[in-house]
Specification:
The chain is α/β, with parallel strands linked by helices. It is 45% helix and 11% strand. It has 2 domains: 230 residues, Aldolase class I (TIM Barrel, Alpha-Beta Barrel); 68 residues. Strand 2, helix 2 and strand 3 form a beta-alpha-beta unit. Helix 1 packs antiparallel against helix 11, helix 3 packs parallel to helix 5 and helix 11 packs antiparallel against helix 12. It is globular. The structure holds flavin mononucleotide. The site of flavin mononucleotide has 22 residues, from helix 9. Pfam families: Dus.
């Protein structure tokens, strides 16, 4: 089984991916959070920093595009080729209302004809290998059957399925029956994504879907960066390893000179998930969320790491 780090906008930045890759069991693939095509020549400074090969050395990185316009996809693909990217992922899963209302992400799943036309155009003109990350429908799981028929017409590099519909956001249980339908019908490589938070969760997916070649993990890794090691039979991450990981992330964000408030914002977002690895520390975690200065943040983080369970 291959394992991929899911793209999480605002969290799995190039800094996060690099520090994770150096500190824990490396992933087989990493994905950028979605890039929205724009008309500027080249990429913005922020996008460039995400994509530059020197910032992603030693990792298999797949850029992700969010759009419903074939010409925008192809233009962005061309810009990505300049940086050497030959594999690109299409986002058909984003549940955010602002994205869905524009018919993008999981919003595109409701426009079957438009989606088919879009895929026909990009697959007839692309020079890259294209994978899709999809939900099973916008409104109802029953939409998935027709979506699979559409996807089945194109030579997908792989199909990554997050078996929820848009209105689930990240709640409710992933619908494994829908994933099973794909496992039976699709001939392209399939990747499962959704709610893998323990070694047992990963084993259950592997056991139930023996033909599936990859699993993508998001929140489970942010909460427990040692999870892939555990899945591969290693010990849980030690407090020392977590501390080293945290300190490198913190240092690297500080070195970007983005302002203390932004560094705090980035670190607090990670703690929303990482906090789960610190049972009994609820009061300290609340103080992390409330910290408005770096010195205060550092003091509470020290207390968290020193806390004896
Ligand atoms: C904060 C956040 C940001 C996300 N950003 C993206 C994104 O940019 N592109 C994408 O395809 N999915 C995005 N996702 C969805 C995740 O990639 C993944 O599909 C989802 O979290 C389910 O997997 P998990 O249960 O392993 O976390 C995001 C999810 C969260 C919670």
């Amino acid at each position: 089984m291959q394992y991929y780090l899911a793209p999480l906008e605002g969290i799995t930045t190039r800094i996060y991916r690099r520090v994770y890759h150096d500190c824990f069991t490396p992933m087989d693939k990493y994905f950028t959070p979605f890039l929205s095509p724009h008309l500027k020549k080249g990429f913005s400074a922020k996008e460039k920093a995400e994509l530059l090969p020197k910032n992603n050395q030693g990792m298999h990185l797949v850029p992700q595009i969010l759009t419903n316009r074939a010409e925008d996809f192809l233009r962005t693909e061309e810009k990505l080729a300049y940086y050497g990217y030959e594999e690109i992922n299409l986002n058909l899963g984003c549940p955010s209302k602002t994205v869905v209302s524009k018919g993008r992400g999981s919003g595109f799943l409701a426009d079957l004809e438009g989606l088919d036309r879009f895929l026909d155009e990009i697959f007839s003109k692309t020079k890259a290998r294209i994978s899709i990350k999809t939900r099973i429908g916008r409104d109802e799981p029953e939409e998935f059957q027709r979506l699979l028929e559409i996807y089945g017409q194109y030579p997908l590099e792989e199909l990554i399925i997050h078996p929820r519909v848009q209105k689930d956001f990240y709640k409710n249980k992933p619908k494994l029956e829908a994933f099973e339908e794909a496992a039976e019908k699709m001939t392209c490589p399939l990747c499962y994504n959704g709610d893998i938070c323990t070694r047992e969760d990963a084993a259950a997916i592997e056991g139930r879907f023996p033909t599936v070649t990859a699993c993508m993990i998001g929140r489970g890794i942010i909460a427990n960066p040692g999870l892939l090691g555990e899945i591969k039979g290693q010990e849980e991450a030690s407090r020392k390893q977590l501390r080293r990981f945290h300190d490198r992330l913190y240092e690297e964000y500080r070195e970007l000179h983005m302002g203390d408030k932004n560094v705090l914002f980035k670190m607090k977002e990670i703690w929303c998930y990482l906090g789960q690895a610190f049972p009994g520390c609820e009061k300290l975690l609340k103080r992390i969320r409330k910290a408005e200065r770096l010195d205060r943040y550092e003091e509470v983080v020290n207390q968290c790491f020193e806390y004896v369970f």
